[in-house]
């Protein structure tokens, strides 16, 4: 980057970060997710590194926190309250360790602590008496919030020993208090808090302590400001001493002898943090030995002897470039946001479902908007909200079309539905989606027939419906792009062997409305053959546990259609199996390895999908649960299995690998 360009960007970033910081620190009401702030800050740090003459004493890269609020007495911190350097991945943590060992040598130990997402405070005690409580403020000057802190029950007003000590910790709002506070706020028509951190900060910076008293705040203390004046040599000793004095110290603190142990601790909490009753946003890693800490010293903003590992963000900011419309196999037209690709929770996200037109209106989404996208765990990415603050004036309103983007038929909105539908039964997009569903893993499971191939088959008019798959011609297939002899033969073999599938796969694959894979299995178990099901009336269907009114109606009207009978007749003629081949009822499968057993799946499976594995186990009478406990009988561990595997070993639970599972579940 040219210097001139860099200078402009630096200016822009500082303004942006100051604005974000103002809303976060002063208003306790951030306008962007933390990850957005962190990323822009990293960008600025990089630029100031590359162009050192652009550094400035008032840059957000060297400033801690925000200025103290008016209305509170200002407090000078005797020992500055600094920020922490950040680590965003394993490499950053290893780099931190390397920098530390350059100073301390290899003989170094760390203490790992949960990074509580709250508000830093300092508590001063004289002769064992609580005399002053302050916020961090800008690190040098904070706000005197003693009267509010006195309402926090976990803060001792008098210690068990008459010492002079200044301790630091994080005030936070437990999840339950946060939820009930927001419930109350909504009942009163007030704006809810965005997250527990802001709720805690907002509560502590109330001028009226009665309000803070009602907020059920809590605190964990994580260090003494004046360690060097105490009779301790290590941070761990310091924490222990604080605990003896009556302070609340977080129990999930771990001394680690190697960086590998540190990384294990990080992994463990990355996976398990949702089980806590309060929010954490990372892990703080601190050098234990106080002498080594002194050797390491400080930068302008943070100690060199500690770093904060931040969990991968579940919310990120990106640009909504376009809204794409797709027609599903039931004709529903779904708008999808096309995003500038962005890393969220460890994966690249470039699409997010917008569900329907109403949602676009509700959220006020315009093309070109900066939006917050969220992806938590395995959940499909969603657009959380629009950052209207960041609009530049060239964003455009989105208009939903009135005609099907695939076949041009006028779209209709069925009664009581928000979705728009194309009602044309021969709509190419719908037929194509139906086929993609038919061959999918949960249905007929035909390998080699991915979305791309199906699109090709359609565009070459080799297929127009399900039955055509079984009439594909080898020579025609060979003419398709990227289809060699080998892949064609494999494909034809996969198609041929799918004819032998048990009934439930075919039933699910047909895409009968409201008949998911579970209902399909139930129906197959109950009726045994397609013929029996075709002849079933509503009453017979309703007699089955799990089959309700809606599903029963849908099944009956499905089989009444003439083209359905024609399709089934054709499939029969082509040699598809129409009988159920599995055990007649899970309950009858009493003599399998899985009957009555509780199984947990963990790690990455190579050959099976999680869903396959689960289905196989359930078909043999086993139950699949999410967490390992003393009730678990078998843990199936794939690659990179983490804490669940560890737990299983601890509890002496039988552990299998994927191959064992496959062997035990193959008929
Ligand atoms: N969303 C926004 O607009 C916005 C704006 C400004 C700042 N921020 C967020 O604020 C944070 C940056 O500010 P920061 O300077 O407070 O740094 P930081 O949060 O990265 O780390 C320092 C803080 O960690 C806290 N902490 C929690 N547990 C701790 C423990 N066990 N030991 C030591 N400290 C512990 C302390 O409060 C300490 O001050 C970032 O998370 C940033 O994303 C967000
Ligand atoms: Zn259509």
TrEMBL record:
Zn(2+) binds at residues 404, 407, 422, 427. InterPro entries: BRCT_dom, BRCT_dom_sf, DisA/LigA_HHH, DNA_ligase, DNA_ligase_AS, DNA_ligase_CS, DNAligase_adenylation, DNAligase_N. Coiled coil: none annotated. This is DNA ligase. Keywords: DNA damage, DNA repair, DNA replication, Ligase, Magnesium, Manganese, Metal-binding, NAD, Zinc. The gene is ligA. Its cofactor is Mg(2+); Mn(2+). Belongs to the NAD-dependent DNA ligase family. LigA subfamily. The keyword Manganese applies. Its EC number is 6.5.1.2. One of its GO terms (molecular function) is DNA ligase (NAD+) activity. It comes from Marinococcus luteus. Residues 589-667 form the BRCT domain. Signal peptide: none annotated. DNA ligase that catalyzes the formation of phosphodiester linkages between 5'-phosphoryl and 3'-hydroxyl groups in double-stranded DNA using NAD as a coenzyme and as the energy source for the reaction. It is essential for DNA replication and repair of damaged DNA. GO terms for cellular component: cytosol. One of its GO terms (biological process) is DNA replication. The active site is at 115 (n6-amp-lysine intermediate). CDD domains: BRCT_DNA_ligase_like, LIGANc. PANTHER family: CHROMOSOME TRANSMISSION FIDELITY FACTOR 18 (PTHR23389), DNA LIGASE (PTHR23389:SF9). It holds the Pfam family HHH_2. PROSITE patterns: BRCT, DNA_LIGASE_N1, DNA_LIGASE_N2. NAD(+) binds at residues 34-38, 83-84, 113, 136, 170, 286, 310. It catalyses: NAD(+) + (deoxyribonucleotide)n-3'-hydroxyl + 5'-phospho-(deoxyribonucleotide)m = (deoxyribonucleotide)n+m + AMP + beta-nicotinamide D-nucleotide. The keyword Disulfide bond does not apply.
